[in-house]
Amino acid sequence: MIREAAESISITERALELQVLLYLPRLMREYGNPFPGDHAFFDEIRRLLHLIKSRVNPYAHWQDEPETPLNNLHATRFVEIPEREARIIHESFHYLSSFRPDSRSFGLRTLDENRLASLITISPFDLEHITPLPEGVSRSNVLVVSRVFCFDWVPMNTVSYMMGHMYRHLRLIYPNVQLLLTYINPNLAFMGSSLKAANWVLFGYEQGTRYAYIDKEYTTDRELVRYHRTADPSQLQSMLGDRFEVTRVRLDPLQLYAYFLDKELYARYSQGFEFVFERP
């Protein structure tokens, strides 16, 4: 059903599957059989189709394969992406549909048509609960890879190729940065394969995974704090009533991966860590 539904609005099966996995926990119960009935599940898929279509439609042509297929990544250039364009990717195409305004984005553009093929966003390290850091690394020496996105018409190794360019560029523009961190969500069937191929190592696990929704739309903690000054579910329930929902079922911990821009640190910590952190 997911495959047929995705084809009906010309998106990939994986794009719809990500949304289903992100929104299905909203319908799941805490006790007994947690899964919704077929009727509720099918209704949710139809609702998500309309939601995705409304986000993507104004920029649907961005998904179209270029007239000259991109078979060789050497036919791209690595550039900084303007905030306006990054916002469209974040809000219309990325599965989180959330823009990080305090960030810088980079990506690959095709040489022939100047088409944006992929994007990676770097944000300040604001994860106060992520401690300890590796010995010799201070908070000011850490950045977060907050978004990664590729269109479906790019080659399989696009993420690792783009990251290789990003590492070299960051060493030039942020010479004091030693460590990059990023999240992987196994509840969405992410395995971290592209990160491992690009020499990232497991840093730790963040327990307490939960999803929040306002008016049945997923929202991040940063958006909750930005617009409502809190991410505390009890306060939001009091403020927003039935408009606010938070998952009750157990979700697997998020995984944190690390990349050491400092070669000496990489040699010292290349085996990775298994720290355990608690989500605030």
Overview of the molecule:
This protein has helices at residues 2-8, 13-27, 38-56, 83-93, 158-173, 193-197, 221-228, 233-240, 263-269, and strands at 76-81, 104-110, 116-124, 142-150, 179-184, 201-207, 212-214, 217-219, 244-246, 254-260, 275-278. It has 280 residues and is of the alpha+beta class. It has a domain at 1-59. Strands 1-2-3-4-5-10-6-11 form an 8-stranded mixed sheet. A 3-stranded antiparallel sheet has the order 8-7-9, with helices on both faces. The longest helix is centred in the first third of the chain and has 19 residues, at 38-56. The mean pLDDT is 94.
What are its keywords?
280 residues, globular, 34% helix, alpha+beta, three-stranded antiparallel β-sheet
